[in-house]
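In this supplementary section we document a worked example of the pipeline. Step one takes a protein sequence of length 445 as its only input; no multiple sequence alignment statistics are reported here. Step two produces a three-dimensional model, which step three serialises into structure tokens for compact storage. The input and output of this example are shown verbatim.
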Amino acid sequence: MIESLLVANRGEIARRVIRTANRLGVRSIAVHSEADAGLPFVTEAAEAVNIGPANPVLSYRNPEAILAVAKSTGAQAVHPGYGFLSENADFARAVEDNGMIWVGPGADAITAMGDKINARNLMAAAGVPVAAGTADPAATVEAAVEAATSIGYPVMVKAAAGGGGMGMGVAVDEAALRTEYDKVRGFAERMFGDGSVLIERYFPRVRHIEVQILGLADGRVVALGERECSVQRRNQKLLEESPSPAVTPELRERLLAAAVRAGEAVGYRNAGTVECLFDPGSGDFFFLEMNTRLQVEHPVTELVYGLDLVEEQLRVAAGLPPAFDPDRLAPRGHAIELRVNAEDPKRFLPGPGAITAWSEPGGEGVRVDAGYTVGTTVTPFYDSLMAKLIVYAGDRAAAIERARAAVAGFEIAGPKCNLPFFAELLDNSEFISGEYDTGIVARMR
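The serialised model returned by step three reads:
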């Protein structure tokens, strides 16, 4: 097993990785910005180093600063968490070029999947279903109009280098396409340094379903079930559950097989997620993207499969076999994750602030992965995620009931908080039925 691990991230995911490292006897090393000096992940690591100002470009997105700390502390490996540098192929290469272990997929796989157009083409060649769309970037708005006419409206206009729900727009006709094209292209150039644009078929009523994969040290790729991620605001997830209430055994078999083919097509190693769109009307699913990292929502898979995905990541990176039998994977029960954000529960606008009260729910089947506690401050410099509230029970109905009680028992004061939204959602008849799609939040509002 790896002996020392630098966690190149912050908040709840840094704390989550450090918890597993500490349990395994791996020396954990945290890096933190000046703004995060008082957060729990800093004090729970065996060692912590300040890497710069609050601005993430000068701290968590600063590869030179992180590599300098990794070398000075004698870190054997680097775990990037999610966000920041987690899908930066150059950073992954730099870690390995400096003689350290990268806890994630190889840089070539990150590069291959980082461009949505290239990823679509690779998946199509591997026999993974993809939605109708452009095989090359739409270099001009006229090329986008021509592609959309061929595909048929409505279409999704997407930044080829985008991710995390950013850099997307929907066009229902040519006039809207011209507007969205310029908007997405400009956003992509500013945010990603790459203005390439993809035009793809848009499905008004669709579900967002993803498959957790794990590329093992021996070269095999295994699928660890699916997660339903259709509760979203601004194309970003708020609630995830596993298994998906929309997936039949026959569909599950097809989904998991496609996800394994996707991983095999790029020689995938370590944890990753194959995201798909599912059209309930036709029963068809389509490849959306592959996230070459650990996902925010990985705990629901952990609870349903009874494993620790961070430990499995470390084992793969160290060249060790998994702690489970890949030939005897057996999901059990139902898990739901709620992303507890510092945001207005109506309009979902960020509302940072000092935390004056923080009391987590507990009991059987309740887990809280938190980045904050009482006396700490949610600053405006980073994502608004404060904690993930995860519940597990024998079936979906029991899990929903447990989630209701856990939400009612979670007290947070100071910053704005979206817990009231979850109380509303968990009593919503559409959600309870399991027959919801990505438009559920908009319909609630």
